Automatic annotation (TrEMBL):
Record bears the keyword Hydrolase: yes
Protein name: Amidase
GO molecular function annotation: amidase activity
Alphabetized Pfam families for the sequence: Amidase (PF01425)
Top-level EC class as recorded in UniProt: hydrolase
Cellular component aspect of the GO annotation: endomembrane system
Keywords: Hydrolase
Xref: InterPro entries: Amidase_CS, Amidase_dom, AS_sf, FAAH2
PANTHER family: FATTY-ACID AMIDE HYDROLASE (PTHR43372), FATTY-ACID AMIDE HYDROLASE 2 (PTHR43372:SF4)
Domain Amidase: residue ranges: 24-464
EC number: 3.5.1.4
Amino acid sequence: MEWSFQTAEELVAALRAGAVTSAELTDEAIARIERDDEVINAICVPDFDRARAAAHRADQARARGEDRPLLGIPVTVKESYDIAGLPTTWGMPPHRDHMPAEDAVQVSRLKAAGAVVLGKTNVPLGLQDIQSFNEIYGTTINPWDHGRTPGGSSGGSAAALASGFGALSLGSDIAGSLRTPAHFCGVYAHKPTLGLAANRGMVPPSEPALPAELDLAVVGPMARSARDLSLLLDVMAGPDPLTLGVAHRLALPSARHERLSDFRVLVLDEHPLIPTGSAVRAGVNRVADALVDGGARVGRHSPLLPDLTEAATLYMQLLISGSVARFPIESYEQLRTRVAGLSADDQSLDAVRLRAMVFSHRDWMEANNRRELHRHGWRQLFAEFDAVVCPITPTPAFPHDHNPNPLERHIDIDGVEYPYFDQLVWAGLATMPGLPATAIPAGRSTEGLPVGVQLIGPMYEDRTPLRLAELLEQKIGGFQAPK
């Protein structure tokens, strides 16, 4: 029996039944990594000796009658999470020797749940790209097409899952970093509601690992099935024990519905600022057809939907102003000069991003206040609908593009070029208001590349898009291993 592509849920059942040991699962996963990862380059920091020791302890614990949610399950962790004894670099050469002294809170939760950590997965420089390459660890490739990226910044995790390197992975997301790699590699991911899962220890190597309320970024689960996302989210959810003084599990509300026929779903496949490529449009429609066939109530338009152009503008303003706030002051002065030269009529996303680089606190407060109006709009929308289905990016995985100036890169949508970072508008739709979004496989393109869509749900109702993901998996199928 080969176990590498079984779901975590299936592996838990096999371990409980005594059909396999954690040591056997771990040895098989390590053998597969040693055989295949020279090409894929997903596992940038292997930790095999400690993984084997953890697997042995898991088997001993099970023999004593212990049972924990992930006891004995081999998993991987995005490089950006602190793991004591392993480097955390975020792909930044000056920090190649940074060795944190303690585990990130989510790594601690993984280990407490009994998981066996195989190692860390590759990321882009500073987690700032839609690809996964850096000078320290090199380039991760897409297991479906070696000339294409697996996405970023959790690209190593998605490539690892698609390659059978462990059953689950920890990722993070501020600009689609969980959802885009899942879409590009044909796996599942869930961007939780903002603040749902504690993030301490998922921090740049130059900064202290303290509890922080992040403005847009979240940590979340990646897997090869929808039910596995829920399994890992249950381990991850809850605030930081440092802020409460106690470990606290968060009771999320149940999914709104159990049957597909009870769901009310809004389907979107067009954005005013960027076209949707034919492969992704076909994936969205495949899901829409399955919903209709399953008896769900499907809408294609709603006056309650917040304005997509303003949503994308707000997202870029909040994202960029936050990410450049630590720029050296001389860079800031150069940016101010460039912004002063922009035409007032230029409302392109490139111009929005440039202006956001020199936002004042007053500018940010204004954008934040407009975000609250959007959040209220989403609350009203989710009184009429249970979920929104839409693209994650406009295209399947694109060819590697390592142009050192990302502003010179472009994304090809059905033969027409668009600015590289404009493809983030769909990811930002859920990120800007802090909504949960589940990425699911939705078939393949005519070239055989995976295509995914996202299911956006109401705030703190993460179980609703997760349940819809399960029902759609039953209806249209889910993960398939690349040939």
